[in-house]
Amino acid sequence: MSYDDLAGLRITVTNGVATATLDHPPLNLVDGVLLPSLRGFINRVRRDPDIRVVVFDSADPGFFSAHGDMAYLTDPEALPAATAAAIAAAPDMPVPDDWNILQVLSEEVRSLPQVTIGKIAGYARGAGNEFLMNLDMRFAAIGRSGQAQPETIMGILPGGAGTVNMARLLGRERALEVILGGQLVDAELAERYGLVNRALPADEIDAFVDRLARRIARLSPEVVAAVKATVETITPKVPHHAYATENGFLYSLFTEDLVASAHKQLAAGVQTREGERDLEGIYDSL
Amino acid sequence: MSYDDLAGLRITVTNGVATATLDHPPLNLVDGVLLPSLRGFINRVRRDPDIRVVVFDSADPGFFSAHGDMAYLTDPEALPAATAAAIAAAPDMPVPDDWNILQVLSEEVRSLPQVTIGKIAGYARGAGNEFLMNLDMRFAAIGRSGQAQPETIMGILPGGAGTVNMARLLGRERALEVILGGQLVDAELAERYGLVNRALPADEIDAFVDRLARRIARLSPEVVAAVKATVETITPKVPHHAYATENGFLYSLFTEDLVASAHKQLAAGVQTREGERDLEGIYDSL
Amino acid sequence: MSYDDLAGLRITVTNGVATATLDHPPLNLVDGVLLPSLRGFINRVRRDPDIRVVVFDSADPGFFSAHGDMAYLTDPEALPAATAAAIAAAPDMPVPDDWNILQVLSEEVRSLPQVTIGKIAGYARGAGNEFLMNLDMRFAAIGRSGQAQPETIMGILPGGAGTVNMARLLGRERALEVILGGQLVDAELAERYGLVNRALPADEIDAFVDRLARRIARLSPEVVAAVKATVETITPKVPHHAYATENGFLYSLFTEDLVASAHKQLAAGVQTREGERDLEGIYDSL
Q: Is the confidence metric ipTM above 0.90 for this complex?
């Protein structure tokens, strides 16, 4: 199967392992380019019998993905356009009325027959981290990774499956802290909170993930399917209404104030490489 | 809103953050004084639009709260009197027949619209720790905090929502260890077991909690409500029957032997400042 | 009650604590000898009022239990024979049609009125680790313990309650990593992943477990029963269909290829003391 047409996403396949590298400068924003490419890739790879494992990483050492495009707030056309493009990228897949496109993508990632692994060696905030939380496993590079949901500071909630997945992975107490506090979670804390499987030394993470991916790629697909389905009996998928609740709240919080605030954030440096290095500092200063 | 009439509880409000300081010497016992004050505070603050975050801490550097009053065991009038006073402190709130007053308080704390944070810099045992486990977040001071449920050694079970909450927070295996072992859990172990969000250096915990509380207090109440309600779809509240089961067992264990044993414990130094410094040692010696 | 007739299992009783020591050289395989003895012990001790706590450990410093007998794969008579012997060891206990005998044993261990504690100071793989995961608590010796489920590399899944229990204890992400990666989990990682309660220094684990077991043995059985039943309201037992699903997949994966592969593994040193010291290395080389 060919994956050459996916803007912002580079796919390489070796021994049954596909590496999907986010390569969409300057910040790997989850925007009208990357969102359709991700959805297109996921729904194509689902039917690719040659691929057993998918590793998601980033071409940018500083950022896995900065977050969703701020234009979703400042430009009323941006989110509908990105959504339409993402729907067109996998036209035969159902899109429930009461879920948004990021939530749809979440369930599509989670239900892949392949095993998915996230490698986090830069910052992943907002929609970038929301995407990561759907993967089967996540590994973070000590001293380099940082994960955060800054949405509440902006006046919304993580609405692309992020509030739901934080609660699922971290439990109520730590999910509330991370979502409402909005601060960056480094690799070691992410491991202690269950946001990643493990924090690994930055110079070992590539080899570790590579070995794990190859091992799993050598397993028979029947075994992987049996394990995934049995695990599912104990840790079932997110109920439909959970995403619908999250999505309902997200739309209820889209107000005029939000647009004004987004413009102020952009003026202060949000969504620039310089500003994103200390996004939390910018928000504290506003 | 005024909070000046709450015996044993000092409330200060700054920038939307209420700090509720347990100040009921000598041991911050959850007794006929503190229990009604806590319930009165919680059900008054619920309707206070000026307060967005509540931090619970202690005026006593050695103890957050020693535990429930031993008089509940030795004096047949004490528990009914404390319960009646607590009911009177929030007369319009429902009190289910099959729950005890500490369990009622637990659900009232958990259902606050505000975000609640516990700061643990001394010992919190028994009912003191049971209260803490209902808060949205908890932080413990390294080298100073200690949490325990010594009830099983006394011949009962943690019955003020404590057995239920230990299972909810720690999982079956660690909950059984902490409840049946009855030993003090220090800050680092509390973090590893999920009994607190994080263990923090004792000289940093105040600033950390203060910053977090201020940040959350700046969020819009709509955002906080949306996050709490969405998290609730994944980590739902404790089912009614769980507390009822716990309460049923608690009452089934109130026996004559228990009264005799309580007198022996008091004679050995339980419920004195000196004795409470090594309560586990006293129990081992009995 | 007498426990002298249990081949491969040594039982000593002191102050209400039974220590069940796996002593079935050369590898404490869960085979046609040890499986019936374990089941017989568990269903006898259930009715022994003199025993309040059961500690499971191993006479072999290198191995808690290597895994299930490879003969289950290479000899078509071995598994039926072991199952029949295990059924005969507790003939009055029900054996559901859609569960295998290891899953039956799992639920029998979990439902004991006594408190069960596992002490892991050597390697526990496959069925050996599956057994451990049913105990109420587990403690692992730093530098000595290692736990793994190598089944997927062999072409099956952990089918003796292991896939289900990994998901229950570790959550979806870490369960998938451990089951599909098949690598040894050392004591510290086991603690961080929730596979054991705690990792303890190898020279302290005996005293720690001994103190904890004695403390619990001094509690009244009514208190222990009340705590266990209340904890169960929050962390309920595994649903019947979860084990049935796991067992269904296990049998669907028993193929001719599996037998051929098992012979190759045995030839490479699997199920020898030397080979089991680096089982993962053998599998990587095959």
A: yes
